[in-house]
Amino acid sequence: MEPATHFDLHQAPTSSHRLLRRRGGRHAWAAVFAAVLQMAMLAGAGAQQVPVHERFQRDVHTQAADGQTCVVLDAQIFPNAAPSLKDLRLVQDGREVPYAVTLSASEQTETAPARVENLRRSGHDLVFDLVMPPRPYTDVVLDLAAHDFVATAVVTGREAASQAATYLGTFNVFDLTAQRLGRATTLHLPEFSFARLHLVLSVSPVPGAPGGELLPQMLLGATVPPSRDAQALYTNVATAAALVQRGKATVASFVLPPRVPVERVSFDLDSRFTQNFSRGVTVTARPQDAPVSASESATGTIQRVRLTLAGRELRQQQLSLPVAIGSNLQGPAQLEVTINNGDQAPLPITAVRLEMRQRRLCFDSGLADGPTLFYGDPALAAPVYDYARMFASATATHTAWLGPQVSNASFRPRQDTRPLMERHPHAVWFGLLAFVLLLALVSLRSSRRLSV
User: Fold this and answer.
1) Measured in Å, how far apart are the chain's first and last C-alpha atoms?
2) pTM for the complete prediction?
3) How buried is 237 (Cβ within 10 angstroms: 0-12 exposed, 13-18 middle, 19+ buried)?
4) Under CATH, what is the fold of the domain 234-357?
5) DSSP string of 349-383, one letter each residue
């Protein structure tokens, strides 16, 4: 019996040619190429595939548990990743892991109006009904065209006008303009979803202030912001603890890296400070080294009121304000937070914090060792995963955390595939200039020969 033929890719060429002739020439060559291709595919399948054009990487540390796992993306990623984070890639054991990026946002995106009905005076009280938006709510903001007053609002709720009312609570609102403590006309309710609210507003003027009684026409309306239980979560971007005084203002300055979003500014006060206050705040941002005229700004108020006035306990504190300014520029940005003190003493602010809405990267994890996050390749297109299209946040989500940012040891830059004129525009123009000079020189020499 003839022994089975063994293909030795390292044997001498003469032996290979004899073998190929014996096996049928072209068919034998095809078998050799197929065997080599299969070996290469097997070798590639066993090797770990690491993105080589991503400049940075970070380990994702997970819990040893199956199921949906999410890690919060911090501010360090944004200036080093491509715009919109389109180059993020998760890799584990040589495989790309599908993911979805979530943005913490209020489940209720807009403030809704509440319709005022049955507005009337009843003795010294202002009485009215509010038809509420068809969703859960926690705050009701009264728009009152009055100053220097304190008021108590007794609130009841019902599903329909014919049903019995349910007592929801008693709340104090105020305007202390004369005392330079601002105003607070928001009713901070627990979360309810009653279709109608009934309010009895008992108003008293502030002692010593020129305020008068509250008339029905002074109630301009009411609005309902998103429920507090549906509010967004935030991640710290930068903190300034060293503030400076500029005249009557306290200023905190920041230099932000490119593309870092800023969506809220928060303030920390010395815990020993117990005084009431109200201060206007201005936030300005502009590209680094750009003129002041290129700035854009946002304004707001921080305040704290804790006192008893006209027999009512007034409690109000607001130490953060939302911002919607272009500080997430494609280049570095200069941002200033200015607290306007007027003729009052500066507040004992211990820190000013810039914050962004929480962004999480979620994936399914089934291994104790977490994947590695790669980024830093602006040429990459955003990935398209079925996982992201069908993503739904799980009730029980495992928490992961990011390790420190390090350079990708396998990094190599992409080849520049742009046309020659785009890659070396100056060299091309120099070449054209040299060609024109050469033609001029040839023309000059030709003209001299002809003149001779």
Assistant:
1) 95
2) 0.68
3) buried
4) Jelly Rolls (2.60.120)
5) EEEEEEEEE-EEEEEEE-SSS--EEEE--TTPPPP
| 90, amino acid identity | L
Distance, C-alpha 345 to centroid of its chain:
34
> How many angstroms separate the CA atoms of 337 and 267, rounded?
10
pLDDT category, 37, cuts 50, 70, 90? Answer: very low
CA gap 261, 315 in Å, rounded = 32
Q: What is the mean pLDDT of residues 389-399?
A: 86
Q: What are phi and psi of 380, to 5 degrees?
A: -70, 140
The Cβ of residue 388 has, within 10 Å, a number of other Cβ atoms equal to: 16
Phi-psi category of residue 24: left, alpha or beta, with phi > 0 → left and psi -120 to 50 → alpha = left
Find all residues with CB under 8 Å of 98, minimum gap 6, and list them.
Answer: 90, 363, 364, 383, 385, 386, 387, 388
Tokens 């306990």 correspond to: 313
Of the candidates 237, 261, 401, the residue with the CA atom closest to the CA atom of residue 323: 261
Token pair of 94 as six digits: 């040589």
Q: Which residue has the higher pLDDT, 451 or 395?
A: 395
Q: How far apart are CA 401 and CA 259, in angstroms?
A: 22
In this predicted model, what pLDDT tens digit does every residue of 348-381 receive, in sequence order? 999 999 999 899 999 998 766 789 999 999 999 9
Quick one: tokens of 37? 């291709």
pLDDT by residue (tens digit) across 128-143? Answer: 999 999 888 889 999 9
Give the Cβ contact number of residue 58 at 10 Å. Answer: 20
Helix residue spans in 1-129 (DSSP H): 13-23, 26-46
**In this structure, are residues 360 and 102 in contact, taking their beta carbons and an 8 Å threshold?**
yes
Helix (H) or strand (E) holding 213: none
Query: Are 154 and 199 a contacting pair, CB within 8 Å?
Result: yes
- Residue in the structure block whose two tokens are 């890799």: 91
The DSSP bridge partners found for residue 305 are: 316
CATH for 112-230 (2.60.120, 3.30.160, 2.40.128, 2.60.40): 2.60.120
> What is d(CA 383, CA 359) in angstroms, rounded to the nearest whole number?
17
Residues paired with residue 276 on neighbouring β-strands, in sequence order: none
For the chain, give every residue range classified as CATH 2.60.120.
112-230, 234-357
Q: Which residues pair with 58 in a beta bridge?
A: 373
Max intra-chain CA distance, the chain: 120
Q: What is the DSSP letter of 84?
A: G
